Amino acid sequence: MTRLLAFGLATLLASTGLSHAQALRTGPNPDLPPLTETLVPRMKIADPTGWNGELPTVPAGYAITALATDFQIPRQMLLLPNGDILVAEGRGGYAPKLRPKDVIAGYIKSLGTSSVKGGNRITLLRDADNDGVAELRTEFITGLNAPYGMALVGNEIFVANQDALLRFPYQEGQTQITEPGEEVTKLPRRINHHWTKSLAASADGSKLYVGVGSNSNVGERGMDVEEDRAVVWEIDRASGAHRVFATGIRNPTALAIEPGTGALWAVVNERDELGPDLVPDYLTSVQDGAFYGWPYSYWGQNVDPRVKPERPDLVEQAIAPDYALGSHVAALGLSFATNGGMGGEYSEGAFVGEHGSWNRPNLAGYKVAFVPFSGGRPNGEPRDFVTGFLEGENTVRGRPVGVLFDERTRSVLIADDLSNTVWKVTRVGPVSAAVQ
Amino acid sequence: MATTTVVTRPLIHPLHGILLAFPIALFTTALLSDIAYLRSAEIQWTNFASWAITGAMVGSGAVLLWAIISLVAHRRSPAFRSRLIYLILVVAMCAFGLVNAFQHSRDAWSSVGTVGLTLSILSTLCALLAGWIAYSARGTAEGVSR
């Protein structure tokens, strides 16, 4: 019996395709290998361990310190004009378990995450002497509901909870806000399979952009629940009125304004269970009115056969994103370098926090990458900026989420939601010149 | 005056029969749900099928164990051949069902498709045939003459 079963399983698993050894996985035109759906998705969950005094790895000429520790699931960060840092902490979603798979896969994935309860708060950090350790730490706003995206416009701080966009009055130097936030608008909140609501303000501050992730991997909860999901909303800051800015954008986990052009950019997590090298997560400028394919097609007009009924009418409108970051890297953080950035190879471009893969036999992501830009567009291969989150091939010490470049102190902050730490990378010496 | 009483009984113990009823009913449910899904693309049908297969597999596991034990225990009985065929059907039912449980864990259309439907048909057929053999009354050597 066992042998028969093993034989049956082996036969079915043998249809698994081999990954492209030399494939181009990143950049504007990534190789897209054939679909390889396996009976059981290929999973590898890195085993969490502590840092035990070790630090993430930074390039020569840079140093890294733990700015603060013991967070309650730190996600995105916001820089305030006086140099204070806000850290949103929380964990959201209330997707019901509809299939036995949801129970089993949910348990397996939970093995690679922190067991700490989400804080539902925003913490303020101050490192005025720039020694890499926060000397002041306060609970800035409490009683939130899985806060994620944050933005500052004038004297107002906007916080994207998993269910609503809130507005708080702010005075420079303030270390705590006690008055309740005013609701700017409700946000799509049913199920919240992908619960994170990313947020960025337009360059002139008149609009707020909110990224809303899909309610499934690829429509397996039915398309009824995908109304107003996998979209970017444009919200009028004054009135709270919104319109759909872009669609078919599966899970836009971080939004940011490119400093040179003022254009809206996003990092987006693409679908799973099509093989280790599909579908690339991406970095893209978000174009007004664009449809990015989800769930009907990926990377432009490559049809995903799992979605029925098919929608060729939508697929033919789908546009390809700008830049592949690699499949399953789970990009969750995006911050642009300004005015020379971190210098050397990291002068102009985007820092990308990669939370790391589960749907891949070889772990991918688990680092902060840097995508060089030129003239407001990606230009060249991504480079590793901060690594060492993995210890060997099976153990993980930290998982990067939000990243934040601070021009004033020439530093990059990294929220790590596994070790519940915020890391600070600073320049300490001469750095190598740009490769390009 | 001599009377002859022929005792007939099904191949399997009543409790074994109750356990077997689960895969018979639930694999059939899964098959019908799969057909409904493939005709309607309504996602709830594949969710139903997924749970039905999982439930069927719970019953199937117990049935498989019992079938193996009773084959060994009755290895010299006249119904050995029936018991062997029954066990083979149960093994096949379990194998198809297990693979189908994984198949149904894939997302959207891939949870069923041609492969899922085929596996549902095969596991249902095995369950029905196993039930036919198991529930059929047969004469045994326990007929008593006086």
TrEMBL record, chain A:
List the InterPro entries. Answer: 6-blade_b-propeller_TolB-like, Beta-prop_PDH, Quinoprot_gluc/sorb_DH_b-prop
Q: Where is the signal peptide?
A: 1-21
Report whether Signal shows up as a keyword of the record: yes
What is the official name of this protein in its record?
Answer: Sorbosone dehydrogenase family protein
Q: Return the PANTHER family for the record.
A: LARGE, MULTIFUNCTIONAL SECRETED PROTEIN, LARGE, MULTIFUNCTIONAL SECRETED PROTEIN-RELATED
Name one matching Pfam family.
Answer: TrAA12
| Keywords recorded for this protein, A-Z | Signal
Classify the source by domain of life.
Bacteria
* Domain Pyrroloquinoline quinone-dependent pyranose dehydrogenase beta-propeller residues, every copy: 129-274, 317-426
UniProtKB/TrEMBL annotation, chain B:
Transmembrane regions listed in the UniProt entry: 18-38, 50-72, 84-102, 108-135
Q: Residues in domain DUF2231? A: 13-133
Q: Pfam families under this entry?
A: DUF2231
Query: Record keywords: Electron transport included?
Result: no
Entry's InterPro entries?
Answer: DUF2231_TM
Q: Which keywords, in A-to-Z order, does the entry hold?
A: Membrane, Transmembrane, Transmembrane helix
Q: What is this protein called?
A: DUF2231 domain-containing protein
Question: What species is given as this protein's source?
Answer: Tianweitania sediminis
